[in-house]
Structures are given as C-alpha cells and as structure tokens.
Amino acid sequence: HIFAFDGWASTVVEHKTDYVDRSTRKKDAWNIGAHAIVRVTLRNGCWKEDIGYGSAINMGKGPGLEKAFKEAVTDGLKRCLRQFGDGLGNCLYDRTFLRNMKSGRERSIPL
Fold first, then answer.
1. Which residue numbers in the chain have pLDDT < 70?
2. pTM for the complete prediction?
3. Domain count along the chain
4. Is there a domain that residue 20 lies in?
5. InterPro entries under this entry (predicted)?
6. pLDDT tens digits, residue range 35-58?
C-alpha cells in the first residue's frame, strides 16, 4: 500500500480534442486524437501533473471520442504515477531491473 487506499486522488485538469477527421478508408468512420492533462494529489498535498494522449482510428464518432479521451486520461494518470518513483512503474525504465526480470532474478522495488 504505497499511498494507502484513500491517500491519493486524481483530477483531469484539461481535456481537448486535437483532431477529428473523416476516415478515407472506411465509410462513416473517423480518426480522432485527444489529449488530457491529469494531476495526482497525495493526502499531504504533494502533486504531480502530466499529459496523456489517446487516439481512435476508423471508428464511429461517438465511440471514437470516448476511446480517445479514455486513453488520454489513462495515459496521463500512468505518467503522473510514474513520477512518484520505482514502486509505481518508474522501474520499467530501469534497464538493470528489466534484465533481472528477464533472467528470473528478483529485485525489490524501493519505495
């Protein structure tokens, strides 16, 4: 329990559609891109903010917008949490950690 079950909150600070273009490959389909700025705030007031991006290709307009926004918010949330350290995904950028994972050696993740 890194933050405890109620030790953090997330907020979508901004979300915008970057483009909505008709697909040239499929009738009644759209290509959509969106971004979201997400903030994760800890109980002690410390916060991290980052941007996430999402897209939908060859989808209906409504479902495509929903997918692009959901993907952008999820990406932004993951990017925020990664900034809090190795225990929340930053270890996935550590080549030594990844090598140890592939070889089957266990390594504790510092919090």
1. 1-5, 89, 92, 104-111
2. 0.79
3. 1
4. yes
5. Rad52_fam (IPR041247), Rad52_Rad59_Rad22 (IPR007232), Rad52_Rad59_Rad22_sf (IPR042525)
6. 999 999 999 999 999 999 999 999
Where does residue 24 rank: exposed (0-12), middle (13-18), buried (19+ CB within 10 A)? exposed
Q: Name, in order, each residue with C-beta under 8 angstroms of 100's C-beta and a sequence gap of 6 or more.
A: 106, 107
- Point out which residues pair with 54 in neighbouring strands: 34
Decide if 99 is inside a domain: yes
Helices marked H in the chain — which ranges? 61-82, 95-103
Q: Are 68 and 55 in contact (CB under 8 A)?
A: yes
> 43 with 8: CB under 8 angstroms?
yes
Closest C-alpha to 19, from 62, 71, 65, 51? 65
Structural domain includes residue 1 = no
Cβ neighbors of 1 (< 8 A, separation 6 or more) are none
Rounded to 5°, the CA angle 102-108-111 comes to 130
Query: Within 13 Å of residue 79, how many CA atoms lie on the same side as its CB?
Result: 17
